[in-house]
Amino acid sequence: MRTNMLSCLKKGIIASLCTAILCGLFPPQAAEAFTDQVIQRGATGDDVVELQSRLQYIGFYDETIDGVFGWGTYWSVKKYQEEFGMEVDGLVGEEMKAMLERSTNYDEEFVQRALREGRQFTHYGQTPKHKQKGPKGAQDQPEVARRDPGAAPETPAEEPAPAPEAPAEEPAPAPQEEAPAEEPVPEAAPEEPAVPAPEEEEPEEQTNEANIQKAMNVPDGYSENDIQIMSNAVYGEARGEPYVGQVAVAAVIINRIHSPTFPNTASGVIFEPRAFTAVADGQIWLEPDDTARRAVLDAINGQDPSSGAEYYFNPDTATSGWIWTRPQIKKIGKHIFCH
């Protein structure tokens, strides 16, 4: 009896050691979450999809998961930051990303598949997954998507809608056959369903693509997020300047990104303490116009009217004596550009 007990004990110890060794050799892989860029209003893409999904999972965001960081997402972010004792700035940086990873779950495969199928859902999280998605193309039919969870029979009625309408309009001439008995004119009625009805119901807009705004003309090496925040900076700093002056301001940001003296990302450069007046006075959050975005793209594509400057200032408003010690290159508009 004692021998059997010792044998069982030995087997248990050996099994525990094997398990510990295997866990040490093959530790569980942490799921990748977000990228390393700061996410802010105006951004689009997978980072925003994940942000909206995680916020919606715990009830901070109740709008459509569409991958576009608009005002709804912005206020949800600030509400989350306030609730969790973080700096309330509407920027999703490393601290908030880490907090979201700890406080939420994110089923990326499910969410991305729903977006690819063109589904719209606003209750990701504790609701059963089969109720978290509307019919395909639901981004074009928000009312149907919202009714779907509570009224299952209506879903099949909506999906085949384009097909039944052809037969629905074919019998329409039947009641009008009384008119041919009196006049032959209504025979033109069959022509109407043949032309407009099918064309209006063609599911061209109900594609299987996610309802996410795509960046236009974004050069390699820069994300839409980078373009957006640089456009905000150019607009906040130089919207009254001539176009060449706006390109020069954008070029200064890019020159700093490429310099070992400054951070190597657009967000890092722009939000470096005391680097830009527009960040300090809040004008960074003004909605940029197309001119500011075009100036950023021209600078990214190689235009540099500043001739390599890493600093610029307005001599009429500058309060720092240090900036006057920098070697000056040229003046464009109201700004002096310098090394």
Concise overview:
This protein has about 350 residues and is mainly α. It has helices spanning about 1-25, 45-55, 70-85, 95-105, 110-115, 140-145, 155-160, 160-170, 175, 180, 190-195, 195-200, 225-240, 245-255, 265-270, 275-280, 290-300; strands spanning about 310-315, 330, 335-339.
Please characterize this protein's 3D structure.
With 339 residues, the protein is mainly α. Among the domains are: 46-147, Muramoyl-pentapeptide Carboxypeptidase, domain 1; 224-338, Cell wall hydrolase SleB, domain 1 (Arc Repressor Mutant, subunit A), CATH 1.10.10.2520. It has helices at residues 2-25, 46-57, 71-83, 94-103, 108-116, 142-147, 154-158, 162-169, 173-176, 178-182, 191-194, 196-200, 224-238, 243-257, 266-270, 277-281, 290-300, and strands at residues 311-313, 328-332, 335-338. The chain has a 3-stranded antiparallel β-sheet with strand order 1-3-2, covered by helices on one side. A hairpin with a 2-residue loop joins strand 2 and strand 3 (335-338). Helix 13 packs across helix 14 (243-257), helix 13 packs across helix 17 and helix 14 packs across helix 17 (290-300). It is elongated and about 80 Å long.
CATH topology call of one domain: Arc Repressor Mutant, subunit A
Strand content range: under 5%
Sheet/helix structural class: mainly alpha
Over all CA atoms, what is the radius of gyration? 30 Å
